Amino acid sequence: MRVLYITGKGRATLPDTYYDSLTSVHNCDSVYVLHLTVKPKYENNHTATICDGQIYTWRGHDYAVQGNYYDSLNSTYGCDSVFILQLFVNASYEFTQTGTICQGDAFNWRGHSLTVQGTFYDSLTTTHNCDSVYVLELT
Questions:
Q1: Which three-class secondary structure string do you get for 43-59?
Q2: Res. 9 pLDDT band, cuts 50 70 90
Q3: What is the average pLDDT value for the chain, to the nearest integer?
Q4: Element (H or E) spanning 68, and its range?
Q5: Which residues fall within 8 angstroms of residue 2, CB to CB, at 6 or more apart?
Q6: 85 or 41, higher pLDDT
Q7: What is the per-residue pLDDT for 7?
Q8: Are 86 and 68 in contact (CB under 8 A)?
Q9: Are 95 and 135 in contact (CB under 8 A)?
Q10: 50 forms bridges with which residues in the sheet?
Q11: What are the φ/ψ torsions at residue 55 (nearest 5 degrees)?
């Protein structure tokens, strides 16, 4: 913050009209008048949430890690405009399981009766709307 000091009056930081006077060595008054205008600065806060493995694009940059990110520019008045992103990353899960069956047998997995070998997938959504993937390698 720029601060203007008025002689003998302290500092001027609020918009207003300020007056100050001095007396010259010849006992003449000098009056100073300041019409102070304070231009605004801006702070823009943004919060976002993604799932693990996703990318969030903000102000031309890609983010995948939870944290606080900042960007700034000057306003038309030359004052700072600060942009703040608070990014949250929720967990995604993958559970891998292996199984073996004999020919003619069935393997019961997640509500399915499987009778052939292969890779099988099932998925759920977490409370944060992220994927939980279940993988079965059946031989």
A1: EEEEEEEEECCCCEEEC
A2: low
A3: 88
A4: strand 67-74
A5: none
A6: 85
A7: 54
A8: yes
A9: yes
A10: 89
A11: -120, 140
